[in-house]
Design a protein that fits this description.
alpha/beta, Rossmann fold, 3 domains, 3-stranded parallel beta sheet, two-stranded parallel ribbon, 12 helices, about 35% helix, elongated
């Protein structure tokens, strides 16, 4: 049997120790709570290991070497070599080691196993089991735990020494990933798609994209293959792109849904035409260049075009706004606009590079 002296130690946060004693009052009544080096000198028959996962096997090995039986929480080990060493020690010393795995030691589960093994339900052909919840039910708030409440170095045990932080392992949750892609309609002149990856539980989805869908009366699944009008809304967060530039993160905000491609393009054309558009038609050069010089002129214009497009698009997130700004810039630069327009494939590619990461 276990010794009446239970090792709680200063590693255990006092707030948690008190609440645990309240819950287990009947079981531990009369027990002496000891800790630190005192625990090493108490006569024990067995050791219960309920430390952080990384401490399970090292403590189990020491207990087995001292000839003690062991009950250890799952997981038994994080390293296969140490797990094998523990198995060898337990066998060599004739010790009992039990790994706790979600209630399997309780009598009702053992009784159920014996009942089923004895053909209590006849021949089993299938067994299904599921557990459905989105957060660890055992998690508790530790925001009021302070460094002086615990022996942080003892807690870290054999881990790298790091500063005290009670929220290092914040509550884990199962999260829902959502990927959305927008393919511009032909009338837009854009030749690249824009994708966004969301976590449904995080702000960009909950504060921007999802409310806009609800306002339109559609679900995520109902949005598939629909024609939409969308704008890119800043999330308030930034990131650094591959060129080392700091950019604003954006999320889709859906503004309208259309029943057909024709309706979508008609609305797009109407809205784009409602504002004055610069003349972006290619201008004829006053003197036709020779074939050789023409290639050189175009190559030079392409280099200027890249700089003009990327500098114009910097800080922009809305596709229509970026297109209008680039068209206006090209209209001011004869060297460029005699070879390229805002709808040229080269221009579209440069816009894609500048805007796709936003």
């Amino acid at each position: 049997m276990l010794s009446k002296a239970r090792s709680a130690g200063t590693v255990v946060w006092d707030g948690r120790k008190v609440s645990a004693l309240e819950v287990q009052a009947d079981e531990v009544r009369g027990a002496t709570i000891i800790g630190g080096s005192e625990a090493r000198h108490v006569a024990t028959d067995a050791v219960v290991i309920a430390t952080p996962d990384f401490g399970h096997t090292p403590i189990m090995l020491e207990a087995l070497k001292a000839g003690k039986d062991v009950y250890v929480e799952k997981p038994m080990s994080l390293e296969m070599d140490m797990a094998n060493e523990a198995v060898d020690l337990a066998r060599a010393n004739g010790r009992v080691v039990q790994v706790g795995t979600q209630k399997r030691s309780e009598g009702k589960w053992r009784a159920a196993r014996e009942f089923l093994s004895g053909q209590g339900l006849g021949t089993l052909t299938r067994v299904s089991s599921s557990v459905c919840f989105n957060h660890p039910r055992w998690a508790r708030d530790v925001s009021d735990c302070k460094a002086e409440d615990v022996d942080w170095e003892a807690y870290l045990f054999n881990r790298e020494k790091v500063p005290f932080d009670p929220n290092t392992h914040s509550i884990d949750r199962r999260l829902t990933a959502i990927t959305m892609g927008i393919i511009p309609v032909p009338a837009s002149g854009l030749q690249f798609s824009v994708d966004r990856d969301y976590i449904a539980e995080f702000r960009p989805w909950n504060a921007i994209t999802l409310p806009s869908l609800k306002a339109l009366g559609v679900s995520v699944r109902e949005l598939n293959d629909r024609y939409v009008r969308v704008k890119m809304t800043e999330t308030g967060e930034t990131y650094t792109n591959s060129r080392g530039e700091t950019r604003e993160k954006t999320a889709f905000e859906f503004l309208a849904i259309y029943d057909s491609l024709e309706a979508c393009e008609a609305d797009f054309t109407a809205k784009r035409g409602s504002s004055a558009q610069p003349n972006t038609s290619p201008q004829k050069s006053q003197a036709a260049p020779t074939a050789g010089n023409g290639n050189k002129d175009r190559d030079a214009a392409l280099k200027f075009l890249e700089v003009a497009v990327k500098s114009t698009c910097q800080g922009l997130t809305d596709l229509d706004q970026a297109r209008e700004a680039v068209a206006a810039q090209i209209a001011k630069m004869p060297l460029i606009n005699k070879h390229f327009t805002v709808d040229s494939p080269e221009t579209m590619n440069f816009m894609a590079e500048a805007l796709a990461p936003f």
